[in-house]
Structure formats: structure tokens, C-alpha cells
Amino acid sequence: MTTPVGQSAGPCPDENECSVCNKEVGNKEKALNCDICNRWIHIECGKVNQSTYSTLKKLNTSCQGMKWLCEKCEKCFGKI
Questions:
Q1: How many structural domains compose the chain?
Q2: Per-residue pLDDT tens for 6-56?
Q3: Are strands 40-42 and 31-33 parallel, antiparallel or unpaired?
Q4: CA-to-CA distance for 49 and 36, rounded, in angstroms?
Q5: What letter does residue 29 receive in the DSSP assignment?
Q6: Strand partners, 40
Q7: Residue 50 domain-assigned?
Q8: Which one is predicted more confidently, 6 or 77?
Q9: pLDDT band at 80 (very low <50, low <70, confident <90, very high)
Q10: Exposure of 17 by Cβ count < 10 A (0-12 exposed, 13-18 middle, 19+ buried)?
């Protein structure tokens, strides 16, 4: 699901790179974290509008079963 940016910081330097544009996802930038590949995607790069982002962010705290997949993972795993 959507995890607030900055909570996934870890030992791997590429972990906070957008998987689409390969630029760093900063703590104050709006981005989503794929629940399968665990990569960050800027909402602009993932073509997620502000309204959808806000809804996903709200659901993250209240809906445990909600998942978000990046485009690549959606193509591979979205129909399982």
C-alpha cells in the first residue's frame, strides 16, 4: 500500500530511487512504494493523480489488505 516517503530508508543506496526516472525520492516528495518489488515511484512518474494519491494514503492507515503495485509488477502479478 502507500507508505509515507522516508519510512523505507535502508542500507541499499538505490532503495530510495524512483524506479521510473531513477532520481532520488526525497522525504517531502509524493511517491508510492510498490508492495511487490518494494521500489518507490514518484506519483508523476507513475501517472497517479493527486486525488488517487490522497485516497491511497488515507487507506494505508485504515485498510490493512489494500495493496499498490507499480506498472511493471501490475503487468506481471496483477491478475493473480
A1: 1
A2: 344 443 446 789 999 999 999 999 999 998 899 999 999 999 999 999 988
A3: antiparallel
A4: 21
A5: S
A6: 18, 33
A7: yes
A8: 77
A9: low
A10: middle
- Cα separation of 55 and 65, whole Å? 15
Look at 13 and 77; give whichever has higher pLDDT: 77
**Could you tell me which residues come within 8 angstroms of residue 8 by beta carbon, excluding any fewer than 6 positions away?**
15, 16, 33, 38, 40
- CATH assignment at residue 64: 3.30.40.10
Smallest CA-to-CA distance from 35 within 65, 62, 79, 80 is with: 65
More confident residue, 25 or 64: 25
Asked, for residue 55, whether it belongs to a domain, the answer is: yes
Q: Which amino acid is at 78?
A: G
Complete DSSP assignment for 1-26: ----TTTT--S-GGGGBBTTT--B--
Q: Give the length of the chain.
A: 80
Q: Which domain holds residue 25?
A: 13-71
